[in-house]
Request: fold
Amino acid sequence: MMRKLIAYSTIICAVILCSHLPNYAQVLVSESFNYTNGTAMHGLNGGTGWAASWFTENNNTNSPGYSATNSLISYSSCSFTGNAMIGGRQYLSIGREISRTGTMASYTANTDGNLADGNEIGAGNLRIKFFLQKLRNDDGGTSVNFGDFDAASWNGTTNNKFGVGYYGTDSNSGGIRYWTLRLNGTTYLRTNVPVSINTTTYIVVDVRFNAQVGANPTLIQVYINPPCNSTLPTPTLSSYTSSFGFKHISIYLGDSPMPSYQTAGIIDEFSIEGILSVLPVTLIEFSGKIVNNNTAKLLWKTVDEINNDFFLIEKSSDALSWKTIGEVVAQKDVEFVRNYSFIDGNMTSEYAYYRLKQVDKDGRFSYSNIIYLPKQMELNKIKINIYPNPTNGVVFIESTQNELSDIQVYNSLGQEMHSIIIRYISSNVYHLDITNLAQGVYYVKTKSLTKTVIKH
Reply:
C-alpha cells in the first residue's frame, strides 16, 4: 500500500527521505522495567514518555503482585535491557498515564486531552510493541489495553478503546486459547495464533488514523510474532473501528488466586512509536499540469512497490465528493523509480482537485495527497524562495505579494499546523517560526504552490 501522506502538495517528499520504515519511527513512550528484582511496581516511574508513575488498581501496594523480576524473557533477534514486570494479583490490573507533552505533543488531541483520535490534530500513525508471556495454564486473562481509565478500575470496559492479549473465555474457541484484539471493551476478534504457555509472544499493533472515509476510519493491524528489526509481514489480524483517543495503558497479567498469588504473566520492552509512514509503497511525487484549456496531465512517481495492483484516479470539484475517472495498472519488472501518467481530457470547469487511490492485490488501499489544478495555470511563472531549508526552527519565505496573501503549514498527514507563528517582514517576505514542531517533513502552502520544508 501507499504511504498515507495526505497533504495539499504537489511533491510529497524527496527520494532520499522516503527510504525504508525505520527512518520514520520515533520512540515516544518506552518502559524496559529496569528496576530492582522483587520491587513492587506501584509508584515506580522509570522509562520515558510517561505523565505519572505505575499505579496498581485500588492502590494495592502488596508484593507479590505486580513487581519487577529478573526472570528475563527472550525472542529471536531481539535485544532486551533491564528486567521485566511479572504479576498479577487477583483480578487487579496495573496502569500508567502517558504524557501528552514533549515528543507526544503533536499527537495530542485538542479537545479532550487524549492522544490523537484521527479527527483532531494527531500527527501520524502509532506503532505499539511489547513482549508478553502467559505463565499459568488456565483461562485467566493476560492483556495490554488502551483507553481513558480511572485508576481504580484499570481493567473496566468503560472507556476501554482497544487492547490485545488473552481475554479468558472470549478468546477461547473449541478449547483452544487465541491471542485476541478487543475493541471498545466489548468486541473480541480472535487471531488464528494460539496462546503458548510459558513462551514469549512478540506483539506489534499499528494504529492508522483516517485510513478510510466513513463511520469506522481507524485501522488497527495486529502482528503476532513478527520478525524483530525487519519489515513487518502481512498483519495477523486487521479491523476498522471508530475514531478514538486514549491516554492510559492498563496491563492485566492474570487472576492469581489468594493466598499464593502465583505469578500469571510477564511483560517486557513496552514502547509506542510515532510512524510518519507505515506502508510499503513510496509515492515520491504527484503533480499535474494543464496542457490545453480542456486537458489536464497527471504525473506521479513511486519506489519500493510491494504488492501494488493498480491506481484509481479520482477527481473532485470541492475536494469532498470524489468520482473515479480512470485506472492505471501497476508497472512490472521496474527496478527502482516507476513513472506514471494519466490524461484527463474533460477539464470543463475552472479548476479541479485530483488524488490517487492505490490498491493492493489483497484489496487494501490508501490515498495520495490532493492536488489542485486551475484551468489557466501560470505556476511556472511563480517563484518562491524558502530559506534556510532544512531548518532548526525559523524559515523565511519570499515571493510576490499576491502569492503570499495566503500561507498555511501542513504536516505529512495533511493536518494544518495552527500553532505556527507567521510574521510579516515586508510585502514579499514572511518569517515562519516552526521551532515547536517535531522533527520531520512539513509543507508550506501559498496561494497556488506548495513547498517542502524539513525540520531538524
